[in-house]
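Worked example

This section walks through a single chain of length 365. The input is the sequence exactly as stored; nothing has been trimmed or padded.
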Amino acid sequence: MTNTYRLIQVGTGGQGGSWCARFLPPNIADGRIEVVAAVDVNPDVHINAQERLGLPPHKCYTDIQRAFDENPADFCTVVTPPAFHESVVDAALAHDLHILSEKPIADTLAASVRIAAKVKRAGKKMGVTMSHRFDQDKTTLRRELRSGRPGALDYLVCRFTCGLRNFGDWGARFRHTMQEALMIEGSVHHLDIIADMAGAKCDTLYAQTWNPPWGEYNSGSQGHVMMTFENGVRATYEGAKTNACGFNGWAREYIRAECERETLIMDNRRIERFPYEPKKQSREGQGQEIPLLEQAKWTNTWLIAQFLDWLDGGPPMETNIEANLQSVALIFAAIESSHTGQPLKVQEFLRQAQEEIEDSAHPNA
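Given that input, the structure is written out below as tokens.
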């Protein structure tokens, strides 16, 4: 049996506008959600909630506390810049709400760990929308890898390259002024996808991030990452926001999976298999095309449905906050590795952050 859950949408501009226009309506149409209010500090973008979600103006707020006080709800979304996620979570927990948040959990590892601890203490459910992992092409590639047909996975290569070097090119302008924009706003998806494909937690990570003179970013618009996973799988990642030309931008990433019996290539939403043939040379475009899976919902629309199933009493969604700490650990380990010039043990890095938060919460223990 499915239930209808009352939602307060926090964030109606930028990506929040996409939630209003694309991600929420299919789940509303299915009778799973009733949007009771919306919040954004910019009243000009309330129009997205009014036109797309049918909310009257008096149900659109600039004051989150007032919105939560005046509108009983079951959960809220968090579709704000990462630096503001923790304050929204605090308000939600104070009003006994479950939470579905955009990635990353927060703009620092410490804040991410704090949020996870707060949610656990409150006994609430919180999911994180790692939308790219649940896109059609990545889901198809993941199915192929897990089918056993390609044999054991040896290593992965992922490429994400864009020509968005001028101020404002990458959508919301905060991405150009924040620290380490590529990792926190972009690679958070890609390193998460790589780890999911690898099928194990990351053991060791080494990274370099930088900003070329022509990139109108505060820092870290380019990055290279090398990873080794606990099951022995290896991976390399190339991320770029300031190239002369973009070849594999959002939702069109390149992933090559080198396996025992096959090479699998995903490039611009097309997937090919290249079976093992001794001494044969081939090139991309000459493989056997793998049809993409078909279903009604993808990306955030699908993840919202998974979150609602969890609220209904089903199993935790894959991107629940505890599991998603692995994702944020990867990006902040990459940033730390770049700053120190040294490889990091990712699980030790995350464990140390968790212990520091636990100690600060119980200073006399």
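What to look for: The chain has two domains: 5-124, 141-287.
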